[in-house]
Amino acid sequence: MTATLDKLNAPSVTEMDSRGEGATIFACDQLWLKDGDGYKEPPPGASLVSIVDDDVSVRRSTRRLLHSSGLRAEAFATAEEFLLSGWMADTACLLLDVRMPEMDGLELQRRLRESHRPIPIIFFSARAGEEEQRRALEAGAVNFLRKPVSKKVLLRAIRAVIESPINDQKEDL
User: Fold this and answer.
1) Distance of alpha carbon 38 from alpha carbon 29, whole angstroms
2) Topology (CATH) of 38-172
3) What's the pTM?
4) Is 76 helix (H, G, I), strand (E, B) or coil?
5) Between the N and C ends of the chain, which has fewer C-beta atoms within 10 Å?
6) Closest Cα to residue 161, out of 58, 91, 83, 97?
7) Residues 123-171: tens digit of each pLDDT
8) What is the C-alpha to C-alpha distance for residues 93 and 78, in angstroms, rounded to an integer?
């Protein structure tokens, strides 16, 4: 079996199934992705989830998880890259790290709020303190998750945002 996720540069193990075939499992902040987990083509008009995180392995594994769950996803290494991407208007949910070089997640949140762009934000961070969490939530973040976060918890949080009335109103504009 050929590994399809070898570019993640993430720790991996190979498991043998009952038929004696190997499958490579990649680990990335508890987002475990099995080689061969299928890519599901998102349905036409599917909501876009944008991921902004300076950790390449988190970006790639989270994007792959979302794709394998049938969601559209784009990933960005910096807040500036997201702002210049042209994807803001299509973004139904923003997964945002707090601590990043140059512009951090809280600054991006502030800029989006000041520009009147109603993008629901889920922060996810391994190193953010309680003060940063409080500030993010007071400024309107819909959720704040701590890394490592399970796939189930992350997907549940994203689906809650995507299925919320604010995104229904956004599509009607």
Assistant:
1) 20
2) Rossmann fold (3.40.50)
3) 0.74
4) strand
5) C
6) 91
7) 999 999 999 999 999 999 999 999 999 999 999 999 999 998 765 544 4
8) 16
